[in-house]
Design goal:
440 residues; alpha/beta; seven-stranded parallel β-sheet; three-stranded antiparallel β-sheet; 15 helices; 13 strands; 15% strand; binds 2-acetamido-2-deoxy-beta-D-glucopyranose; signal; signal-anchor; Sialyltransferase-like protein 2
Length: 440
């Protein structure tokens, strides 16, 4: 009887500890969401310098704070001639746009520490990675029936799927992202663009015959589906054939065939992006995201970001259909005033232009931490490095990346994260990441 009693108590106790551990684990996982006075101050101070920054640099744009610490509305002068019509509703684009600064600062700061290239280790570590994710990245993946035949899926991805990330955060110093706007022909930015460590271009942007305006250097090229299908033509745009091609959509049989048969010697990868909602869909924004995951600083050229928008033009072809130009310009201005990018345009052509009132790195960091708590992001308020990871995979590194040859900033970051690779997870509640941790 005694023994039975004791056994019962023991069972009860161990049950309780199990529950306690579970609750503890859970609260660690979801982090500490209580905002301190310093957190509120950080958000307030971000808002106020943000507003001054938009006024000082936005060529007529004004920022007004909304009802809470995060909401901000960017407004164009009332005499702005809005030209773009939504083809579905026939409505003209409005003159003011609401943004959530907390969302933006938390999500974009995370991008700086993430890997945005799809790897084999990511698919392997993702629960149902092959059946649920990989087959979506293959054109006509539906026919593969959730990768029932995994070997076939792997075969289709093999030419574009490195085992581990080919690049690490901060690998490069100064980077320039070049859009395709017709505005590029208004300023001779060529020499300036060539002075960057890395130049990122988009789709079918030609270099030959335009070098005075767009420069010669080309390190990466981001491709949408249309351009990727013409991979053979795209590789000819860069004479050196060194450009790394990044495909933002699915891999297509035509592409595999071209890589194999032509053969295309350029490295080709698929992009793995974070989700920003409807605000950030175009190739331009994806290129900025990609750049921010590799570079210390990101400068932007060739986007339509000056007042007086008339129609969507490209520097190398006739005008074509564009979309939401005013929304785009406001969004880029927000990015500049969060210290993410620097805008260069015909009206902002002085290479030494200083972005006034851009918040300091310290201020951004404080606002980011406060935002993570407010938005109940995974791991908010925790000092633990891995707290923002909702999936953690220990990985025996077969091939160790030689980090000693990298820039100091990249090595420092690598040490700070102890070699952990962080991948964005699409549609993850609380923006948790997938992390692979090296074990020896
Ligand atoms: C550059 O100009 C030459 C001569 O007009 C033309 O043949 C060539 O196709 C052009 N190159 C590109 C990339 O547009
Ligand atoms: C990103 O990494 C840096 C160290 O390189 C660290 O200071 C910073 O807090 C990290 N940011 C996020 C959002 O985790």
């Amino acid at each position: 009887m005694r023994i039975l009693h004791l056994g019962f108590l023991l069972a009860l106790a161990s049950g309780l500890t199990a529950i306690l551990i579970y609750i503890n684990g859970l609260s660690n996982h979801y982090g500490n969401h209580k905002l301190s006075d310093e957190d509120w101050e950080a958000l307030q101070s971000l808002q106020s310098s943000f507003q001054k920054c938009v006024t000082a640099n936005g060529l007529g744009l004004e920022a007004v704070s909304g009802t809470d610490y995060c909401q901000v509305t960017l407004t164009y002068p009332s005499d702005t001639d809005s030209k773009w019509k939504d083809p579905k509703t026939g409505e003209v684009e409005g003159l003011s746009f609401e943004f959530n600064l907390c969302e933006a600062v938390a999500t974009w700061e995370q991008v700086r520490n993430s890997t945005t290239i799809l790897t084999r280790e990511f698919i392997d570590a993702l629960p149902h990675g092959w059946e649920e994710y990989a087959w979506r990245r293959i054109n006509k993946g539906v026919l593969l029936n959730h990768c029932k035949n995994k070997a076939l899926c792997m075969e289709k991805l093999s030419l574009v799927l490195p085992e581990t990330p080919p690049y690490v955060p901060r690998q490069f110093g100064r980077c320039a992202v070049i859009g395709n706007s017709g505005d590029l022909l208004k300023t001779r930015f060529g020499k300036e663009i060539d002075s960057y460590d890395v130049v990122i271009r988009e789709n079918g942007a030609p270099i030959e015959n335009y070098t005075e305006y767009v420069g010669k250097k080309s390190s990466f090229r981001l491709l949408n589906r249309g351009s990727a299908k013409a991979l053979d033509k795209v590789v000819e745009l860069d004479e050196t054939r060194q450009e790394v091609l990044i495909i933002k959509t699915t891999i297509h049989d035509i592409m595999n065939q071209m890589i194999r048969e032509i053969p295309i010697k350029n490295p080709v990868y698929l992009m793995l992006g974070a989700s920003f909602g409807s605000a950030a869909k175009g190739t331009g924004l994806k290129a900025l995201e990609f750049a921010l995951s590799l570079c210390d600083s990101v400068d932007m050229y060739g986007f339509t970001v000056d007042p007086g928008y008339k129609e969507w033009t490209r520097y190398f072809s006739e005008s074509r259909k564009g979309h939401t130009p005013l929304h785009g310009r406001a969004y880029y201005q927000m990015m500049e005033c969060l210290g993410l990018i620097k805008i260069h345009s015909p009206m902002r052509s002085d290479p030494n232009r200083v972005v006034k009132w851009v918040p300091s790195r310290t201020a951004i960091r404080a606002a980011r931490i406060a935002s993570e708590k407010l938005l109940r992001r995974v791991g908010a308020g925790s000092e633990d490095l891995l707290s923002s990871c909702s999936i953690i995979k220990k990985q025996v590194r077969r091939k160790r990346m030689s980090i000693t040859s990298l820039r100091k900033a990249a090595v420092d970051h690598h040490k700070f994260v102890k070699g952990t690779t962080m991948y964005p997870l699409e549609h993850s509640l609380g923006h948790g990441q997938l992390c692979t941790v090296p074990v020896d």
